[in-house]
Specification:
Elements lengths: L15 H13 L1 H9 L10 H15 L6 H10 L8 H7 L10 H30 L4 H21 L9
Helix pairs in contact: 1-2, 1-3, 1-6, 3-4, 6-7
């Protein structure tokens, strides 16, 4: 069996542009938040920590029935002591720069969720590889854990009505 050295030098799968477009569109129009939420977009789907934090605060505002805009978001991030962690208010305001005139939120969410799923597969696979290399568990246990992790990803995809971008 041939071995392959998979290097993560390229970085993990992500689409920072799609992430920024989602966040920027929400800042400009709260309907975009409802579109993203209806597709079950989660903070964990974002690759960048700053984007995860921003979206989590947007969800907090939305869950409280409050408007999501630059001022309310900056205040919510400040209340949680996260303004600097996301790049400051200047970064927040830059999220709307270069945003398409009519952003296609549904497509951007599909892209972000697809990349998130790919990262999940990588994490599950790396965990299986580490357990196999450790030889601390039986091969059957390692295989069972790998199957369970991949099935959990598959179940998550199905329960969220996720479709791969390539099939759309």
């Amino acid at each position: 069996m041939a071995t392959t050295d998979y290097s993560l030098e390229r970085g993990l799968p992500s689409s920072v542009d799609a992430e920024r477009s989602i966040l920027g569109a929400i800042l400009l129009d709260n309907f975009a938040f409802h579109q993203a939420s209806s597709q079950n977009l989660q903070a964990e789907d974002f690759a960048l920590d700053s984007h995860r934090r921003i979206y989590a605060r947007m969800r907090d505002l939305g869950d409280q029935g409050r408007a999501v805009d630059l001022i309310t978001l900056a205040e919510e991030l400040s209340r949680n002591k996260e303004v600097e962690a996301v790049g400051g208010v200047a970064y927040l305001s830059s999220l709307t720069d270069g945003l398409p005139h009519r952003p296609n939120i549904e497509q951007y969410v599909r892209i972000v969720k697809d990349k998130s799923l790919l990262r999940g597969v990588i994490f599950a696979s790396n965990s299986a590889i580490a357990k196999a290399m450790d030889e601390g568990d039986s091969a059957t246990d390692v295989l069972s854990a790998a199957e369970a992790a991949l099935y959990a990803l598959s179940d998550q995809r199905v329960s969220q009505g996720f479709q791969n971008v390539a099939t759309i």
